[in-house]
Design brief:
Layout: H1 3-26, H2 33-55, H3 57-60, H4 63-79, H5 92-113
Helix pairs in contact: 1-2, 1-5, 2-4, 4-5
Amino acid sequence: MDSTNSRELLLQQGKNVLASMKDLLNGAKKKGKARADLYEKFCANLHSFNVYTYMDPSIEQMGEVQAIIQKLEAFSAVFAEVSTDIEASIDVKSIEHTYQDILKEFNQIEKFLGL
């Protein structure tokens, strides 16, 4: 796979992650299976994003990409308890800030990759 294709796949999957993050953020105050399902969808999109990241070593090694991966993991960690306790409370304020940071950083990566 050439570099352009892997970058396009990465950016598309990044957009999927952002969309599932937004859905999860909007459903964060809810409890139960619906929120757990949103978290599961986010985790699936995050996994795919990570796979596409590691397909191209030049992308994987970018500081910006590593920074966004760390923030995505922090966002995910806030919801980790939801996978075992669907009634768990979530600190919505902390994830709103993290989401905004990730959105800004993703926009920078998109500009840097030139697509």
